[in-house]
Q: What sequence folds into this?
């Protein structure tokens, strides 16, 4: 009889514990759901990100590293962070490259003496200039760097190499499509020079047919300065026209003139703001984007959007009266586009100071409708994050996938740390990427604010529950 009573008692205890646990779980979910709602309400009804972006884009403009506009952007964002009443705001010095485009580039395709048609080009970032009188030569079209070896010096020497491999339209992940052809932009001139080419034309990294050439970073590697050749990007419409013309007349001439120049490195800054943690002030979580941009447009999508969304995260946390356990930092990195100096410098300084970073989130994929996050984490941390998916689904955030995070936060990576990247809908991103149409009017206010809210919700959950490695070490 006593054994039976003991079994019944044990059964009741187990049931009671299960019910209590379920009630506690529901309480936590309700609490988190209410916080998410408050964050989204504050972002969509009283957001500041769009007005900040308006000023960055329309009053300052393109913010190429080392430029006056980059300096103005540093001053403006520092002032705005100070107005938020954060615990700390400071500038972190970093030396950055200085390259200028000069007078607008000019190009034409000559099919016969006196018969030519102009085409839209722009110099690639870091390229050398053409001779003062410009450069005119025959063109050899290739689909990628690998074609150079096949053709050999005999067919390339003295000519302009035209890289015409497009982004694959049937690849749904447009960043994957971009990765499949960006090598021709980055290393195309360096490799073509080895075969005696005198210049390089690169098809723009763009899935849309238009007349906007897209710039971007390039390298000459260890090529001697006197052997470096000028490199330009041509619009997708221009690339198709040139390719068609070459099929009709293989010995046509291409002329282009560009006036770019590289100077000595100059000092710039990362802009940093912090809310000091209430429980773990020496454990840091970072949210950020890159403040520099290319000079053709005003850098609204790349990456003004990511900067103002990151600033908005700290404003929203204060707005909803959430007191973080960890120290939360916003970092506006300088020089992601042509050097990654800001991200590298921040990680170096953190290491020198012995700062413990447990989480970092980057927004550098445009201000479009947010769809989810890519996560760079171990299994335990990834599973914890996936368990939060239901909290984001009411806001149409469905994608939580293992993958990359962001270029600027990459140097911070350590064992057990979680890195993440906001992943907006990417189908239109490369229509604007590094081009003159990357302007304020291309950004939708609501989409921008939805992204800021999603980032804030993610930071809130990471701060509240911590990383798995971190939680274990604290318990010990």
A:
């Amino acid at each position: 009889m006593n054994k039976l009573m003991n079994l019944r008692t044990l059964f009741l205890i187990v049931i009671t514990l299960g019910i209590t646990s379920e009630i506690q779980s529901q309480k936590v979910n309700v609490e988190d759901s209410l916080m998410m709602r408050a964050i989204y309400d504050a972002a969509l009804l009283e957001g500041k990100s769009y007005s900040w972006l308006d000023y960055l884009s329309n009053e300052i403009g393109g913010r190429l590293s080392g430029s006056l506009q980059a300096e103005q952007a540093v001053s403006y964002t520092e002032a705005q962070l100070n107005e938020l009443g954060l615990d700390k705001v400071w500038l972190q010095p970093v030396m950055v490259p200085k390259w200028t485009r000069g007078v607008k580039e000019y190009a034409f395709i000559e099919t016969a003496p006196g018969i030519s048609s102009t085409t839209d080009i722009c110099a690639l970032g870091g390229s050398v200039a053409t001779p003062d009188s410009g450069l005119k030569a025959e063109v050899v079209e290739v689909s990628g760097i690998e074609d150079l070896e096949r053709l050999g010096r005999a067919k390339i020497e003295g000519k302009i190499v035209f890289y015409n491999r497009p982004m694959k339209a049937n690849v749904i992940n447009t960043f994957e499509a971009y990765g499949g052809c960006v090598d021709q932009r980055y290393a195309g001139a360096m490799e073509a020079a080895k075969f005696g080419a005198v210049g390089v034309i690169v098809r723009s990294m763009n899935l849309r047919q238009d007349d906007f050439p897209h710039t971007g970073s390039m390298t000459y590697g260890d090529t001697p300065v006197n052997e470096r050749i000028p490199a330009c990007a041509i619009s997708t419409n221009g690339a198709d026209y040139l390719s068609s013309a070459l099929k009709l007349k293989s010995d046509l001439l291409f002329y282009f003139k560009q006036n770019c120049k590289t100077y000595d490195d100059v000092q710039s800054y990362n802009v940093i703001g912090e809310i000091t943690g209430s429980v773990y002030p020496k454990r840091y979580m970072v949210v950020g984007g890159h403040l520099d941009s290319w000079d053709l447009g005003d850098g609204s999508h790349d990456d003004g959007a990511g900067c103002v969304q990151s600033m908005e995260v700290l404003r929203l946390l204060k707005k909803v009266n959430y007191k973080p356990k960890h120290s939360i930092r916003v970092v506006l990195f300088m020089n992601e586009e042509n050097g990654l100096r800001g991200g590298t410098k921040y990680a170096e300084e953190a290491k020198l100071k012995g700062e413990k970073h447990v989480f970092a989130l980057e927004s550098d994929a445009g201000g479009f409708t947010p769809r989810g996050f890519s996560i760079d984490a171990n299994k335990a941390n990834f599973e914890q994050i996936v368990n939060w998916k239901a909290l984001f689904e009411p806001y149409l955030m469905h994608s939580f996938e293992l993958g990359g995070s962001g270029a600027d936060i990459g140097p911070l990576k350590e064992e057990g740390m979680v890195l993440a990247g906001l992943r907006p809908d990417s189908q239109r991103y490369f229509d604007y990427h590094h081009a003159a149409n990357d302007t304020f009017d291309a950004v939708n206010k609501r989409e921008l604010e939805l992204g800021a809210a999603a980032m804030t919700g993610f930071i809130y959950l990471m701060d509240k529950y911590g990383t798995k490695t971190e939680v274990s070490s604290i318990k010990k």
